[in-house]
């Protein structure tokens, strides 16, 4: 039997790669991990230029609303002013702390860390800058990367990788895209004080989400001040003394300080040696894997965003745990873990937030046929005094044949926090009768999910 330098070599120090490396090492495997960004790159997109800094900036943006709303509750507050450099500095300090936490987790588990770019040389060999190492199994967990279309003047735009450290703060920001990243940053920078224009070439933003949620959020974003324009696209971008002049396909133009392209992410597979090793890619450039994350090369595995299944950090973490159990067996006294992709909850940190789990209305009708829709749209108690016109939307989708709640959607403050708990119920198969028999916590917005009794759309089959 061939002797390998390592039992598992992980390429990529993001959430999935770190979790797989740490868990495998804790089981006694000899594990190495290579991260081209070094310690500062540990945690991947989520920690460095994704979920964590984005949520911190979302909190910052909400303070502007809070200062204004405080007047309705008797507080007189002088006009607030954002200290953008201080926000950036505080965020950078927290991210550096998290990088250190990830490093400690890896080294504490016995993982050997290489702060170098790694590529595949063959089915069992990883080539680093100076030398190569052999491994019984190799895991590719290199995540995704922002994609910018080939528009004239694309050299003048930024992506979500650069948005957190802009200097100076953009007084005028143009956001191109209609996905959750585009909508989040449009909301965040609008809240921080930018004059934000958002362009999306499609009919409505947030494709893939429930249609009512999409329409509701778009309306709320516009009320909050975002100049959201659908069926609109960029023709060219030019730098002038007045700023970036963006010519639109319609013939109109806009002059802004910064153009953010948030038009999707692609699997990070460039210069990885995948072709050399024989690893197959799909038409979308993602690594093709089996149910157990095995690529076309039996000793090479891949998970997370590089496989383009569901680009969510908790999904990569779940996949990592399932893979380690598959390769090494479950931990002592534990059952074998497998990853289920049903009823995965998610949140979008627009203003207001979105929380969702299960099927959209269109998906539910297509899958179950006869469904019943329950919906509530109301002004939250807080805003009866705050002066804000923001509203909250809640929606339940029920499969008539089983009475099971198969979709739950919310737009409103802390929607992600609310929906996380209900996701457990949907995962467990809760029925509408169970929802109806559950006592609500009063007064909360969340209680609306267990007090909706009258359907807004009765049972109807898919067309």
CATH topology of the largest domain: FAD/NAD(P)-binding domain
Q: Label the overall shape.
A: globular
User: Share of helix among residues?
Assistant: 25-40%
Tell me what the CATH architecture of the largest domain is: 3-Layer(bba) Sandwich
* Class per helix and strand makeup: alpha/beta
Low-confidence stretches: none
Task: Give the helix/strand layout.
Elements (H helix, E strand, L loop, with lengths): L5 E6 L3 H12 L4 E4 L9 H6 L1 H19 L14 H26 L2 E3 L4 E4 L2 E3 L4 E9 L3 E3 L25 E5 L3 H13 L2 E6 L10 H14 L2 E4 L3 E7 L2 E6 L4 E4 L1 E4 L3 E3 L6 H4 L22 E3 L10 H16 L17 E3 L5 E5 L2 H8 L2 E8 L4 H4 L5 E8 L5 E7 L3 H13 L4 H6 L19 E4 L3
Parallel strand pairs: 1-2, 1-6, 2-3, 6-16, 8-9, 8-14, 9-10
Antiparallel strand pairs: 4-5, 5-6, 7-15, 11-12, 12-13, 17-18, 18-21, 19-20, 19-22, 20-21
């Amino acid at each position: 039997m061939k002797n390998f330098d390592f039992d598992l070599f992980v390429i990529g120090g993001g959430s999935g790669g770190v979790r797989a490396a740490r868990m495998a090492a804790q089981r006694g495997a000899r594990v190495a991990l290579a991260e081209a960004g070094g310690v500062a790159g540990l945690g991947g997109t989520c920690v460095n230029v994704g979920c964590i800094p984005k949520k911190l900036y979302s909190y910052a943006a909400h303070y502007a609303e809070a200062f204004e709303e405080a007047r309705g509750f008797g507080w007189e507050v002088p006009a607030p002013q954002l200290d953008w450099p201080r926000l950036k500095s505080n965020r950078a300090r927290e991210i550096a702390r998290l990088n250190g936490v990830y490093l400690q987790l890896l080294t504490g588990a016995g993982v050997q860390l290489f702060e170098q770019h790694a590529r595949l040389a063959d089915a069992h060999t990883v080539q680093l800058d100076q030398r190569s190492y052999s491994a019984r199994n190799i895991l590719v967990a290199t995540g995704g990367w922002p994609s910018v279309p080939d528009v004239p003047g694309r050299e003048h735009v930024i992506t979500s990788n650069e948005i957190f450290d802009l200097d100076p703060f953009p007084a005028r920001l143009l956001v191109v895209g209609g996905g959750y990243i585009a909508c989040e940053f449009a909301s965040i920078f609008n809240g921080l004080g930018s004059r934000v224009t958002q362009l999306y070439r499609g009919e409505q933003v947030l494709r893939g989400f429930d249609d009512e949620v999409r329409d509701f959020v778009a309306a709320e974003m516009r009320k909050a001040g975002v100049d959201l324009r659908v069926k609109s696209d960029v023709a060219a971008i030019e730098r002038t003394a007045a700023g970036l002049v963006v010519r639109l396909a319609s013939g109109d133009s806009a002059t802004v300080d910064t153009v953010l392209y948030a038009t999707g992410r692609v699997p990070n597979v460039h210069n990885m040696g995948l072709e050399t090793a024989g690893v197959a890619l799909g038409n979308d450039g993602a690594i093709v894997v089996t149910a157990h994350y095995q690529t076309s090369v039996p000793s090479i595995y891949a998970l997370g965003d590089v496989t383009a299944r569901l680009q969510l950090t908790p999904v990569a973490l779940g996949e990592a745990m399932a893979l380690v159990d598959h390769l090494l067996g479950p931990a002592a006294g534990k059952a074998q873990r497998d990853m289920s992709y049903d009823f995965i909850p998610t949140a979008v940190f627009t203003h207001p937030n979105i929380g969702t789990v299960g099927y959209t209305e269109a998906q539910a009708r297509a899958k179950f046929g006869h469904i019943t829709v329950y919906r509530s749209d109301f002004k939250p108690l807080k805003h009866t005094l705050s002066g804000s016109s923001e509203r909250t939307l809640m929606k339940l989708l029920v499969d008539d044949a089983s009475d099971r709640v198969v979709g739950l959607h919310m737009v409103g403050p802390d929607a992600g926090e609310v929906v996380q708990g209900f996701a457990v119920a949907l995962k467990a198969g809760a029925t509408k009768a169970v929802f109806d028999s559950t006592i609500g916590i009063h007064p909360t917005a969340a209680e609306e999910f267990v007090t909706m009794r009258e359907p807004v759309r009765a049972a109807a089959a898919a067309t």
